[in-house]
Write a structure and sequence with these properties.
By secondary structure, the chain is of the alpha+beta class. It has 15 helices and 14 strands. The chain has helices at 60-67, 79-84, 109-121, 127-146, 153-161, 176-180, 184-194, 210-221, 269-282, 288-296, 328-344, 349-366, 370-383, 388-397, 401-411, and strands at residues 3-8, 11-16, 19-22, 28-33, 39-46, 88-93, 98-105, 200-206, 244-250, 256-262, 300-307, 315-322, 418-424, 432-433. The strands form 3 sheets. Strands 3-4-8-5-7-6 form a 6-stranded mixed β-sheet, sandwiched between helices. Strand 1 and strand 2 form a beta hairpin. Helix 1 (60-67) crosses helix 4 and helix 10 runs antiparallel to helix 11.
Length: 434
């Protein structure tokens, strides 16, 4: 691993080294050399996610993730040349961005440049490809969000918690009809607005050199028209000043409780504090919620606490499945008692050290693979500075018990709460609002 490790007191810092340059068409390129591996990773991140969609045409960013494998202007079949080069690839879409990555033997890296540059140049835009991928996404929508137990939870929770910001719909889209009705011209416009060099970040990591990557980047990406840099101007979500609650009944095996609280954006100082709060409350079997509500009080069969990690202000979430015979009111009250402790009692030094150490281990473990390092560099560059990858651990270590107390008081204010009671049973009249 081509990185510098240095000790400072009892803390271990992993410095990920990288170089950065930019092509004349605006494509940002980051290079992380790691000559301990025979592999190379080519990661292309586009600064477009579900939050950038037209509210009447949602799900397009995710649809594009599929379309990008359906053939580009000069390459009808994306998979065969990659497989012949010993490579593998995948992609994922979030509300904030879309990421594509290829891993292959370093000596075959030019194949990845060839493939990724051609689909950045232009997709094939065929009715056949659109129809095939539209069906795939529609089936995914039905399987995971309509027919699956609890599959509609986050449709309801996002609509409950967000009133203005486009986080109010999921990456899959707000309605199945938006994908069913997608037209080729809609797709073409979406591509040429967002999938341009000026709106992309290319990260190359592994057994490569900066000079080699610069040459290949100029050769394959340099002549692609830059496009206009997308300037995001999304509606801001107003501060919440009211208790929100929703009750639904569905044919699911167990009652479930969901509670969501608006929290700081990904780059705000409060993000790191909130992240540690989720670890204290729900980070594994030794966490407070597990120990108290599962082991001691036996109210939940499972419970967790996490946050959405979104670029714009996100959500801190508590969710759990109840033991049969326990009422949602009883379970909700028990959760609120644990949140009250977070608001009134400072976390002990021992508990704080434990969650910080766990967070450090997670960061170090995640960065062990060259693919994860490439992915992380792309995301941090999107956030504004790829070097955040080397400074975030220090931000976690700097969090104090006083900050956790103050942040808990802000986040867990009842007027900042959004609660969903998901009843198990046969719905009679559909959704009921409290």
């Amino acid at each position: 691993m081509d990185e510098v490790n240095r000790k400072k007191g009892k803390e271990l810092f992993y410095m990920i080294k990288f170089d950065r340059f930019q092509l004349s068409n605006g494509l940002r390129v980051l290079v992380h050399e790691d000559h301990s591996t025979p592999m190379a990773v080519v990661n292309v991140l586009y600064d477009v996610g579900a939050r950038d969609e037209d509210p009447t045409k949602t799900g397009f960013a995710h649809l594009f993730e599929h379309l990008m494998f359906g053939g580009s202007v000069n390459i009808e079949d994306f998979e065969t040349p990659l497989q012949l080069a010993g490579g593998e690839n995948n992609a994922y879409t979030t509300n904030d961005f879309t990421n594509y990555y290829i891993q292959l033997p370093a000596e075959n890296i030019e194949t990845a440049f060839y493939l990724e540059s051609d689909r950045m140049l232009s997709l094939a835009f065929s009715e056949k490809s659109l129809e095939v991928q539209r069906k795939v996404v529609c089936e995914e929508f039905k399987e995971h969000y309509i027919n699956k137990p609890y599959g509609d939870v986050w449709f309801k929770m996002r609509e409950l918690t967000y009133k203005q910001h486009p986080y109010r719909w999921m990456t899959i889209g707000s309605k199945l009809s938006h994908i069913e009705d997608a037209q080729l011209e809609d797709v073409r416009q979406f591509f040429f607005k967002y999938y341009r060099p000026a709106n992309a970040i290319l990260v190359v990591a592994g057994k490569v050199s900066v000079a080699q990557v610069r040459e290949l980047a100029e050769k394959w990406f340099g002549d692609i028209p830059s496009g206009e840099k997308y300037v995001r101007n999304l509606p801001k979500e107003p501060a919440q000043h009211e208790i929100r609650k929703l009750e639904v009944t569905a044919d699911v095996p167990l009652d479930a409780l969901y509670k969501a609280y608006p929290m700081a954006s990904r780059t705000a100082p409060g993000y790191y504090v909130a992240d540690l709060i989720t670890e204290i409350l729900g980070g594994g079997t030794s966490s407070r919620l597990h120990q108290t509500l599962i082991k001691e009080k036996k109210l939940f069969s499972q419970i967790e606490c996490y946050h959405t990690g979104s670029v714009d202000p996100g959500l801190l979430v508590v969710e759990g499945k109840l033991i049969k015979g326990v009422t949602l009111e009883e379970a909700d009250k028990a959760v609120e008692e644990e949140l009250l402790k977070m608001k009134t009692e400072k976390v002990s030094d021992l508990e704080l050290i434990k969650v910080k150490n766990k967070t450090e281990s997670a960061i170090v473990f995640e960065d062990m693979s060259v693919m994860n390092r490439a992915n992380s560099l792309a995301i941090y560059e999107l956030l504004g500075d790829a070097n955040m990858m080397n400074t975030e651990l220090g931000k976690y270590q700097a969090v104090t018990a006083e900050e956790i107390l103050a942040t808990s008081q802000r986040i867990f204010d009842p007027n900042n709460s959004n609660t969903l009671y998901y009843h198990s049973g046969q719905p009679k009249g559909g959704v009921t609002h409290a």
